[in-house]
Amino acid sequence: MAWVYLVIASFGEIFGVIFISLYVRKKTVGRLLLLILSFAGGFFFLSLAMQEIPLGTAYAIWTGLGAVGAVLVGILFFQESAGWKRLLFLSFIIAGAVGLKILE
Amino acid sequence: MAWLYVLGAAIVEVFWVIGLKYSDSVLDWLGTMIAIIFSFYFIIKACETLPTGTVYAVFTGSGASVIVLLDFLVFGEEFAIGKFLLLVLIITGVVGIKITTDDKETAARRRQEDGGY
């Protein structure tokens, strides 16, 4: 079950990023609330997942899935660039962050 | 300016990550909450100009880097070559994405193409 919680936690992050994108386009209270609820939900499920999955592993997977998801959602729904330079440098950053969390 | 917001968000993040770990009084928790609010405020400000995917990745990578540097500089953790190489990888990525992102083009294009949301 902990792995399901971890996936839900990552989606909390991805939806949080979607609502950031929506909120900066039109600043409504509803969008802000959805943004807060998504991230808060993500943290809640991350803490549930961490009761069974080792901290470093859980944190690394959550970070990686969340960041990759945020990039993909940006490209698919918000006209963000899919140029090779952007994807290359983003993969450096995400791989580095995931690696650091695993080692911690 | 937008990049400074990302940096600000990453630096403030370090405070709330430490806060979540060590808070044991109402005041500590209050400070942690304020740090979380500030770090998300900075992220939202940055996303007004820069692509959200970029902001989120740079924020995550910088935050992880600052925490590792703090462990090494302040908490006296041993220097590990693996961590150092990952830091170099993140810094290369952040500098690369900063150089190749055209802030003005992004904002202008967004205004032009985004009718629907």
TrEMBL record, chain A:
Name the principal localization, coarsely classed: membrane
The cellular location(s) given in this protein's UniProt record come to: Cell membrane
Highest taxon of source: Bacteria
Q: How does it sit in the membrane?
A: Multi-pass membrane protein
- InterPro entries with a match to the protein in the record: EmrE-like, Small_drug/metabolite_transptr, Small_multidrug_res
Q: Which SUPFAM superfamilies match?
A: Multidrug resistance efflux transporter EmrE
Transmembrane stretches in the record are 6-25, 32-50, 56-78
**Keywords assigned by UniProt?**
Cell membrane, Membrane, Transmembrane, Transmembrane helix, Transport
Please report which protein family the annotation says this sequence is part of.
Answer: Belongs to the drug/metabolite transporter (DMT) superfamily. Small multidrug resistance (SMR) (TC 2.A.7.1) family.
Matching PANTHER family: GUANIDINIUM EXPORTER (PTHR30561:SF0), SMR FAMILY PROTON-DEPENDENT DRUG EFFLUX TRANSPORTER SUGE (PTHR30561)
Q: What is this protein called?
A: DMT family transporter
From TrEMBL, chain B:
Q: Which UniProt keywords apply?
A: Cell membrane, Membrane, Transmembrane, Transmembrane helix
> Any stretches that span the bilayer, and where are they?
26-44, 56-75, 81-101
Give its localization: Cell membrane
Name the InterPro entries on file.
EmrE-like, Small_drug/metabolite_transptr, Small_multidrug_res
Protein topology in the membrane: Multi-pass membrane protein
Protein family: Belongs to the drug/metabolite transporter (DMT) superfamily. Small multidrug resistance (SMR) (TC 2.A.7.1) family.
Any idea what this protein is called?
Answer: DMT family transporter
Q: Which organism is it from?
A: Aliibacillus thermotolerans
